[in-house]
Amino acid sequence: MSQESETVLSGEAALPGALPESLRAELIAFRRDMHMHPELGNQEFRATAALKRRLEQAGLTPRVLNSGTGLICDVGTWDGVRPMLAIRADIDALPIPDTKAGVPYRSTVADRAHACGHDVHTAIALGAALVLAGLDRQGLLPNAVRMIFQPAEEVLPGGAAQAIESGALDGVGKIIAVHCDPKVDAGLIGIRQGPITSACDRLEVALDGPGGHTARPHLTTDLVTAVARVAVDVPALLARRVDTRSGLALTWGRIESGHASNVIPQHAELSGTIRCLDLAAWRDAPDLVHAAIDEVATLHRAKSQINYVRGVPPVVNDGDITDLLRSAQTARRGSYAIEDTEQSLGGEDFSWYLEQVPGAMARLGVRAPGNQAPYDLHRGDFDVDEQAITVGVELFTAAALIDGNRL
């Protein structure tokens, strides 16, 4: 029996598609090379070329997205009738320095790091494509599978829209993904039906007035007071105009105004993010935010300009697809390798795919078992237990096989 046709037993389930040790080593090397050469959103030319080259070596036919980075690649031949399962990975890095010490794969690019695990997601999807291609050659792949290597997840409103415009969902009936979670041990996945991430939008506000002397604020627009009231009162107003269960929250990250202590400025700026746990409330958020800002600004005689940048809706996991991930992990590693997970306030552009087709995202444990250090995403010292790559590959391959056999 070849390595590609090895089976993994869990209870009564038996599925082909275990990750061969030789391929595991290759995927770890691929992940580390990608980690050393991080690329920001829409600049992932090196990663795109490396993926294209390896997929072509496996006899597959990847297609670069219209945006110039990222790829779509089908494993197996789609019959044009049965909808495909899509597997999505994101390939971009973050604009922060890599502060890890003592690892040979530390970033070689200044102020760039794979601090969110996208290199791990990419290696997992590549491994799944290669394993599924081997099964397809043996006639063991029941239905074609679409691989999506997506650029620019970290760039609002996200590269998912670019992938969709390039035809990533053509012929697709459902979609799955994983996201690294440093609070979950490697070997486990976290699953949640319903919302698993938050919506995330960006807000930029400019306030203007005629300016004047701090000795006579009653003769002009006291712009510093106006911007302070917007900063304090608008989040409070929103909290009273939206059902608190929706989790709508406006948090400011920047406020600027003035240059002298005795001059009332003519211009002030604020910027922040709006996060929301509920999809319906997120859809109403722009109108509510605009109204609240205008109300407070007008009260203080300031003119407001509002730039509300739509980011991403919440990821809402479909019940049936969540069950598919649960079945896949159970078949590979047993039900003990699954834990419930909570909804995060982080945003994820995987949600844009779910506006088109049902899908689900699982949290992939990447914490070394026994390590209780408080690591988090988007930190310069972020790293993973690379056992997670094997877990992710085998989760995806099992999901593809189970789903294909159900059709």
CATH superfamily of the largest domain: Zn peptidases
Distance between the termini: 27 Å
**Beta strands, count:** 18
Q: Identify low-pLDDT runs.
A: 1-13
- CATH overall fold name of the largest domain: Aminopeptidase
Explain the overall architecture.
There is one protein chain. With 407 residues, the chain is an alpha+beta fold. It has two domains: 3-195 and 315-406, Aminopeptidase; 199-312, Alpha-Beta Plaits (2-Layer Sandwich), CATH 3.30.70. 33% of the residues lie in helices and 26% in strands. It is built from nine helices and 18 strands. It has helices spanning 21-36, 45-57, 118-137, 160-165, 223-241, 279-299, 319-333, 350-354, 387-406, and strands at 7-10, 13-16, 63-64, 71-75, 84-90, 145-150, 172-185, 189-191, 194-195, 199-208, 212-213, 249-257, 263-264, 267-276, 303-312, 316-317, 338-340, 359-367. The strands form five sheets. It has an eight-stranded mixed beta sheet. The longest helix is centred in the C-terminal third of the chain and has 21 residues, at 279-299. The radius of gyration is 24 Å and the shape is elongated. The chain starts with 6 loop residues before the first strand and ends with a helix. 48% of the residues are buried.
